[in-house]
Specification:
Length: about 240
């Protein structure tokens, strides 16, 4: 069973399994029932909406492995304790688990990357199957980093999917506690305190962390009570062009 609300990962997962290696395996694809965009674009017999919480017993009875590829639903404890559930997470566990890891990694300088891990009852938590870091460059925004992480997730899926299906891997539990960021933590970041004193370095890091193409994140309230959104564009010049 594959659950995903991410178009890029869905399309790439379909390409990965379209080969002789997986020809005899049956993959059932689902997306979250509240995913309106997918309802209008993808609703087919091969890709259907599901409410995980409402279908726990059915999933347990039918599947031995559940893959979560950026699924927007929380898995109930009964499910993760009854069926092997594996999550493809856009972060370097156990750092900045939860909401938008790349945003917080730019700001707090903790590692970012991709992690494939077994799921337990906690958010983005469990034994790590494989993970890899990426470098955050000084001119990259949250959008840039997220795209790099997605590409890394696809690479790790290609390399390790068969072992995950066969359960022929060794997993390890993180040696440190790490940290977690919730939706409310991101929302608290969005409103800019115009009177706060910070360095230019901190300001640039903040704005590039909050800049994600197609989304309005960082904002301030002007004297007329209007919400003014801000993002940032950065352009790097190679040394030989200076």
């Amino acid at each position: 069973m594959v659950l995903t609300d991410n178009e890029y990962l869905y399309e790439n997962m379909k390409e990965i399994i379209d080969c002789d290696e997986y020809r005899d395996m049956n993959f059932n694809f689902y997306y979250s029932d509240r995913n309106i965009a997918f309802n209008s674009r993808y609703l087919t017999n091969d890709f259907k909406p599901i409410n995980v919480k409402g279908k726990v017993d059915e999933i347990i009875a039918k599947y031995q492995l559940v893959l979560s590829l950026h699924c927007k639903q929380l898995f109930p404890s009964k499910l993760v304790n009854s069926v092997r559930c594996v999550n493809i997470h856009p972060g370097y566990n156990p750092y900045n688990r939860g909401w938008f890891p790349q945003v917080f990694s730019i700001i707090n300088k903790l590692p970012i990357g991709a992690t494939i891990h077994e799921m337990d009852e906690n958010l983005d938590s469990g034994n790590i199957i494989v993970q890899e870091k990426i470098e955050i460059l000084s001119w990259e925004t949250s959008f840039d980093i997220y795209n790099k992480v997605q590409n890394l997730e696809v690479k790790l899926l290609k390399q390790h999917l068969h072992d995950i299906i066969d359960h022929s891997y060794e997993s390890i539990y993180p040696k440190v506690e790490g940290n977690i960021n919730l939706k409310k933590d991101f929302e608290a970041l969005c409103k800019i305190d115009l009177d706060k004193s910070i360095t230019f370095r901190e300001a640039i890091d903040y704005f590039r962390a909050m800049s994600f193409s197609g989304y309005k994140n960082a904002y301030f309230i002007d004297q007329e009570g209007r919400k003014v959104f801000i993002d940032i564009n950065l352009d790097v010049v190679c040394n030989d062009e200076v």
